[in-house]
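Hi both,

Apologies for the delay on this - the queue was longer than expected. I finally got the pyridoxal-5'-phosphate-bound model through. Below you'll find the protein sequence and the ligand SMILES exactly as submitted, and right after that the structure tokens for the full complex including the ligand.
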Amino acid sequence: MDYKFSSLLDYVQPSPVAELLSLGADKSLISFGGGFPDSSLFPIEAISEAFVHAIHSQPDLSLQYSVIEGIPSLRQKVADRARATAGFDCRMEQVMLTQGGTQALDLVSSLLLERGDTVICENPTYMGAMGPFDLRGCRYVGVEMDDEGMDVDRLEAALKAHPEAKLIYTIPDFQNPTGVTLSTERRRRVVELANR
Ligand SMILES: Cc1ncc(COP(=O)(O)O)c(C=O)c1O
């Protein structure tokens, strides 16, 4: 059967994450490929208690449709936490809840990226992020890392060489796959370069 798939899929490769997850599901293998936590450490009791409590005490809030940005009381808590821990003036109206990191990447890509745009990312980077970027036929410019994270001098050089770049995709905490955390000084440089 000759399906008429969208031309948006022209650039999309088979997902390496799907392959890793299918290997991880094979109980006869101990997979070191994906970041699988040890399932014996899952806090089963605490999670089930929390679910039962939430559904019984606030059934409407738990199961009913809500505003698109997510339940306001939870967004308020996220904003309070960002203010208290990260020290910037974050308001509830600036917080949007998503189903996870991948949905957030997809929304940001829809907001910012045109077909064929250039994305600057760490080399190596999280392969799952390539899904939303590939869908838009993005070109990648990789910036080398060391044990303090992305090399910001090379980032500056990459921005000069690719002034058309639309997005710097960086994973500053416990980078995937290296596990490296970007130093405070370098974070400031990244923000400064992005602003420039
Ligand atoms: C950097 C990074 N972003 C996003 C994800 C996927 O997040 P989610 O399952 O919340 O979409 C992962 C998963 O390993 C990740 O390492």
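Main takeaway for now: Residues 99-196 form a domain with the Aspartate Aminotransferase; domain 2 fold (CATH 3.40.640.10).

I'll put the files on the shared drive as well.

H.
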